Amino acid sequence: EPVAETSAPKPGFLGRLVGRSAEPRRALDDEMLESLEELLIASDMGVDIALRVTANMAEGRHGKMMSASDIKRLLAAEITRVMEPVARPLPIYPKKPQVVLVVGVNGSGKTTTIGKLASQFKAAGKSVVIAAGDTFRAAAVEQLQVWGQRAGVPVLTAPEGSDPAALAYDAMGRAEAEGADLLMIDTAGRLQNRADLMEELAKIVRVIRKKDPDAPHNTILVLDATTGQNALSQVETFQKLADVSGLVMTKLDGTAKGGVLVALADRFGLPIHAIGVGEQIDDLQPFDPEEFANALVG
Ligand code: GDP
């Protein structure tokens, strides 16, 4: 059972606007709707989707007297509706090893997420191999080794500065030889030189396909929720660099900008496989749209 307990929802923004009463106290008028839109936009939801969510929620209810809890419930239901199609756990294929390429900018939480995922799969009885493919960052390799130890999973490394594709190829061989269920490959996140990074990722894909033409079976983009709207441009960038198949959103524990997930879902429709809610090994949860929506509206 890899699912950690839910962290207590932070006091949400709607509470401040409409109070906490279940008693009807305000009309759902234009002024109220505008305030709701502003609050949603302030959560980094993005203007388009904030306006749409508010309009849908108000449809057929203009001028009605509403309690605070009515408004929250209706708004949360609209947000849940947007998020439900993207809440999809990492798909498990029968293929061995299933290759998961993990991409994202440095600091987004790639290393941590790989450690957490490895631990979950291990707990679910799967054998896992990790390849420390960011060979240019010694600190990242060390950090991944620490996570590997915590999760009880081998971490393959290569000398600093060596070709990540060669490591990925070796890791495929090792995972195959061991009959591992899963191979997770960390990658560099230097966006300063996109052409290099693109070539590096393409080469990794090319060599692992020599061993399995269907690999990588997943390419997960790790995004830091505290970067707010910036996450949108990161998706665009990485979609050009790699064939992104799904997202993991980290650091949702420390942000009021979680609304960006709604903007991401609306704009890209990529599956959200999991969310990071802390720095510990158990702090990775499946994405639950309803829980997320309730926490967002508070
Ligand atoms: P990488 O450079 O992409 O590999 O990022 P790291 O995995 O090293 O993470 C960068 C920092 O973010 C570290 O200090 C992590 O502990 C922290 N971090 C990662 N995921 C989360 C999360 O879900 N919540 C919080 N609060 N911190 C996180």
Automatic annotation (TrEMBL):
Tell me the protein's name: Signal recognition particle receptor FtsY
The UniProt keyword set, sorted, is: Cell membrane, Cytoplasm, GTP-binding, Hydrolase, Membrane, Nucleotide-binding, Receptor
Q: Which GO terms describe its biological process?
A: SRP-dependent cotranslational protein targeting to membrane
Function, in words: Involved in targeting and insertion of nascent membrane proteins into the cytoplasmic membrane. Acts as a receptor for the complex formed by the signal recognition particle (SRP) and the ribosome-nascent chain (RNC). Interaction with SRP-RNC leads to the transfer of the RNC complex to the Sec translocase for insertion into the membrane, the hydrolysis of GTP by both Ffh and FtsY, and the dissociation of the SRP-FtsY complex into the individual components.
Which Enzyme Commission numbers does its entry carry?
3.6.5.4
Output the lineage of the source organism: Bacteria, Pseudomonadati, Pseudomonadota, Alphaproteobacteria, Rhodobacterales
MF-aspect GO terms = GTP binding; GTPase activity; signal recognition particle binding
The family this protein is said to belong to: Belongs to the GTP-binding SRP family. FtsY subfamily.
Where the record annotates domain AAA+ ATPase, the positions are: 96-243
What fragment of the full-length protein is this? Answer: 70 to 367 of 371
Keyword Transport among UniProt keywords: no
Q: Where in the cell is it found?
A: Cell inner membrane; Cell membrane; Cytoplasm
Recorded GO CC terms: cytoplasm; plasma membrane
User: Where's the SRP54-type proteins GTP-binding domain?
Assistant: 97-298
Q: Which residues bind GTP?
A: 104-111, 186-190, 250-253
Q: Where is the signal peptide?
A: none
Bilayer topology:
Peripheral membrane protein
Identify the gene encoding this protein. ftsY
In terms of one coarse class, where is the protein primarily found? membrane
Transmembrane ranges, per UniProt, are: none
